[in-house]
């Protein structure tokens, strides 16, 4: 391969012999040790470097091909990425898994012990962060020139421990040992300003920041599967400038004061905000958001300039996706760069900005729509607030022209909320400053345009599109479940399904193949045995997701207590179940933490009671993350997707589980609807109110106590909780359900519990269950993130692949 500077790139071999040679050379020359004295950590780091080199070679060829093509680039801006463990991914994508194992063993290293040292970078909270990682995986697999931008938090999502059943959060110093997958790029560092003031000099506005911080990038490789393309995700870390260390104070013995400015600067990328769906409302968070935006935009502009000379081409060469409102300050920031720094006139700049950006909304919860106090934003970013006011003036002129005499509409659509306090509405800014706004599932997009963003839809209906989420089949089928992957490849006679998931439909005829069916069952059983939680013969009933009241883990818990009561009553006729919970609650989300505590208390009681032996087990492994998800999902029989209809934007765990052959019990919410449409109503356990019914009930006088009074089993379950049988925490949870029941848990209880009896009936007929399971996998190829990316390309990005020679 001829690179730009004319240097031929030596091709690194992937044979065991070539791999071993490089492994040893990396051990000697880069790690500075020998086989005899190498620690497990030495061996791990050396392995990582050897694998990384093989992808780095492809990266170099990718960069050269992209540079030559000067294509429209896709940039994904996201405050969160849940990339998952890198070693297994990079072994698979570089095609060196076997060679590596052989080479390690030949050197006397234990491959599994070494692989266990790989630490997953937990730079996200939940679905939104994992979606970002799946989209990057698909962009690379589909040969789209793309870069992900994010923040390199020193501390990722907290490690969850349980102490007496209560969630305790521990810092996640994920890069404590150093991160062998990272390429630091200090030459590309950026300077980010905060605070200060604006003035007008020679007709142009100049912002003079009161404080500056350095953004230092490093990147991780994002390999495509079955292609030579290797993209990158570039993560920014805040660094104090040299000048912020106060030598005079240090000399005077004032050690803390000497470093206080530096510490403040570096705190910007210190920790991931562990909130999910609720804005933190803190100045540091706003600083993080601007830090990400400022560094990334300057980098994007730098890259544009490498190949282009005319600003008029910027939007045709650049598509920037805003992952929720967290990076929406990019809109005023690009206006500032173009107008203040580059001297473009406002209208030209606005046209470029609007054609460059698009926005994905991931929620319907009104409390999750970010707003920032005008005072705070104006203090931290004075020029950006001025620009937001200018954008707002044009927006409101357009609203008044289209809807004369509709003052209330003007008030609702304004970028500035006036009452009770003045706030900047980031979602309104996002829709105003972009070409397209998308929801993440069909129902979500429909509800967005008819409720929270209705006024904007009235004004600009063509701006709204749906792009239903998807998941990476490489990560969540091939890496998570090598056994089922081998079986699928065998059944289809090809492994091409890994990059064309629609091929899974070819499994449907195999439901008639007795040998395939029994192997399918064996794989599920083996995955449960490997997970090692509960009896592998029992139905594994899984609810894994962040803890939030709208997701209704409390409904699942009421079901568990009901089953327990039925067992205690004697003559239990349900099937043996292991109920598995997994997930974290935001540290400040008291009600969610109560639910976690209560689940652990119920689990302790149920599991200790000999009456439940062989019938019911409740497990709650701590610290659910990508690593654990990859073990739980392939083992699951039943997928719990039981949010109050109209609240879950999409869900993606629902897709991962169904794709892996779990059957869903769920409400008509988010993407559940689309899953059910595809797998067929007969292969999906539907229950509960739909979104319209839930809305009607919520807006009338809903009385949870009526359900309590009418339903003996529900009453019994709530009574034991209220009575304190599981501690004081239960009393709080029960009171909240009986007094408010914000998310209609009691209204859906009977329908849910009865549907679970249908689950039991289906499970008892193992032949029927197997058919349903295979059909779930065969019919959910649509939920590949490759399809999601294809939809973004067609409707939003309009970017084309650039092939990289293998
Ligand atoms: F509130 N989601 C998330 F919309 O994981 F910003 N974190 C968040 O902060 C938000 C949404 C936000 C999730 C949605 O809850 C889930 O329904 C969806 O599948 C996922 O984002 C990916 O779109």
Automatic annotation (TrEMBL):
The keyword Amino-acid biosynthesis does not apply. The keyword Methyltransferase does not apply. Gene3D superfamilies: Glycogen Phosphorylase B. It catalyses: [(1->4)-alpha-D-glucosyl](n) + phosphate = [(1->4)-alpha-D-glucosyl](n-1) + alpha-D-glucose 1-phosphate. InterPro entries: Glycg_phsphrylas, Glyco_trans_35, Pyridoxal_P_attach_site. Its cofactor is pyridoxal 5'-phosphate. This is Alpha-1,4 glucan phosphorylase. It comes from Paractinoplanes deccanensis.
């Amino acid at each position: 391969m001829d690179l730009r500077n004319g240097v031929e790139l030596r091709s690194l071999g992937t044979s065991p012999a070539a791999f071993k040679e490089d492994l040893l050379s990396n051990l000697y020359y880069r790690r500075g040790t020998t086989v005899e004295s190498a620690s497990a950590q030495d061996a791990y780091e050396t392995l990582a470097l050897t694998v990384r080199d093989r992808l780095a070679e492809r990266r170099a060829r990718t960069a050269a091909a992209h540079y030559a093509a000067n294509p429209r680039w896709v940039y994904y801006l996201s405050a969160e990425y849940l990339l998952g463990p890198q070693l297994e991914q990079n072994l698979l994508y570089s095609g060196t898994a076997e060679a590596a194992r052989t080479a390690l063993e030949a050197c006397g290293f234990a491959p599994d012990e070494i692989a266990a040292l790989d630490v997953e970078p937990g730079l996200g909270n939940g679905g939104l962060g994992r979606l970002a990682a799946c989209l990057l995986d698909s962009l690379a697999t589909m040969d789209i020139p793309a870069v992900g931008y994010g923040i390199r938090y020193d501390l990722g999502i907290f490690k969850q421990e349980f102490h007496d059943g209560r969630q305790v959060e521990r810092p996640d110093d994920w890069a404590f040992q150093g991160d062998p997958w990272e390429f630091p790029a200090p030459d590309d560092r950026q300077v980010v300003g905060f605070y200060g003031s604006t003035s007008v000099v020679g007709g142009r506005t100049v912002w003079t920041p009161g404080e500056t911080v350095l953004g230092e990038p490093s990147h991780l490789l994002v390999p495509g599967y079955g292609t030579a393309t290797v993209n990158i995700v570039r993560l920014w870390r805040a660094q104090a400038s040299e000048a912020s260390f106060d030598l005079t104070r240090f000399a005077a013995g004032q050690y803390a004061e000497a470093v206080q400015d530096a510490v403040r600067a570096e705190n910007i990328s210190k920790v991931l905000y562990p909130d999910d769906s609720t804005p933190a409302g803190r100045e540091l968070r706003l600083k993080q958001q601007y830090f990400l935006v400022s560094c990334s935009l300057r980098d994007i502009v730098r890259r544009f300039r490498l190949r282009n000379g005319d600003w008029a081409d910027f939007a045709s060469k650049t598509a920037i996706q805003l992952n929720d409102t967290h990076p929406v300050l990019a809109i005023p920031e690009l206006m500032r760069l173009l107008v203040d720094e580059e001297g473009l006139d406002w209208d030209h700049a606005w046209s470029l900005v609007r054609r460059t950006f698009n926005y994905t909304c991931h929620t319907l919860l009104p409390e999750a729509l970010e707003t920032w106090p005008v005072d705070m934003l104006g203090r931290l970013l004075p020029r950006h607030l001025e620009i937001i006011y200018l954008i707002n003036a044009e927006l409101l002129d357009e609203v008044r022209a289209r809807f004369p005499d509709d003052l209330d509409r003007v008030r609702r659509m304004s970028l500035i909320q006036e009452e009770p306090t003045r706030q900047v509405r980031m979602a309104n800014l996002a829709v105003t400053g972009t070409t397209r706004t998308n929801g993440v599932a069909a129902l979500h997009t429909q509800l967005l345009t008819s409720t929270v963003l209705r006024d904007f839809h009235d004004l600009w209906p063509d701006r709204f599109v749906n792009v239903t989420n998807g998941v990476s089949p490489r990560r969540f089928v091939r890496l998570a479940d090598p056994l089922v992957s081998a079986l699928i490849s065998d059944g289809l006679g090809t492994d091409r399904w890994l990059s064309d998931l629609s091929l899974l439909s070819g499994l449907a005829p195999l439901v008639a193949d007795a040998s395939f069916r029994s192997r399918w069952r064996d794989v599920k059983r083996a995955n449960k045995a490997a997970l090692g939680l509960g009896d592998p013969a029992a139905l594994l009933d899984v609810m894994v997701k962040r803890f939030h009241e709208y997701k209704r883990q409390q409904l699942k818990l009421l079901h568990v207590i009901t089953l327990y009561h039925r067992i205690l009553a004697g003559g239990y006729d349900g099937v043996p179940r292991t109920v598995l919970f997994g997930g974290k609650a935001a540290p400040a989300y008291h009600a969610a933490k109560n639910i976690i505590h209560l689940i652990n208390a119920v689990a302790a009681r149920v599991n200790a009671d000999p009456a439940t032996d062989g019938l019911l087990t409740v497990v709650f492994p701590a610290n659910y993350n990508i690593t654990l998800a990859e073990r739980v999902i392939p083992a699951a029989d039943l997928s719990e997707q039981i949010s109050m209809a109209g609240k879950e934007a999409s869900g993606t765990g629902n897709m991962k589980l169904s794709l892996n052959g779990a059957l869903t019990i769920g409400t008509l919410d988010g993407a559940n609807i689309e899953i059910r449409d595809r797998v067929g109503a007969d292969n999906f356990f539907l229950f509960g109110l739909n979104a319209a019914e839930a809305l009607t009930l919520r807006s009338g006088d809903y009385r949870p106590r009526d359900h309590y009074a009418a339903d003996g089993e529900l009453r019994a379950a709530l009574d034991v909780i209220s009575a304190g049988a599981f501690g004081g925490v239960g009393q709080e949870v029960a009171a909240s359900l009986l007094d408010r029941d914000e998310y209609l848990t009691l209204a859906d209880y009977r329908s849910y519990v009865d549907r679970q009896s249908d689950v039991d009936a289906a499970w008892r007929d193992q032949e029927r269950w197997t058919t349903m399971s295979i059909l779930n996998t065969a019919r959910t190829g649509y939920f590949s993130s490759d399809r999601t990316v294809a939809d973004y390309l067609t409707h939003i990005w309009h970017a084309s692949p650039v092939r990289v020679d293998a």
